[in-house]
Design a protein that fits this description.
mainly beta; Ubiquitin-like (UB roll); 11% helix
Length: 66
């Protein structure tokens, strides 16, 4: 499946849902905020939201530091 993630085109084979994508990108548990095709998703929607070829996904996650 071809997705546009944070402005970069990516071929990702084993991903079906937004939750799968977050796991594939190793962002699980990092407080990610996801926008799918210009619509912000609630975290409760990640597991049920199915991705389609060509979807545009923006992911913002929090990074600690000081």
């Amino acid at each position: 499946m071809k997705l546009i993630v944070n402005g970069n085109t990516m071929e990702i084979a084993r991903v079906q849902t937004v939750e799968d994508l977050i796991k594939e990108l190793k962002l699980a548990g990092k407080g990610a905020i996801v926008e799918l095709n210009e619509e912000i998703l609630n975290k409760s929607q990640h597991a049920e939201t199915v991705l389609a070829n060509g979807d545009k996904v923006e992911i913002v996650h929090f990074v600690g530091g000081g």
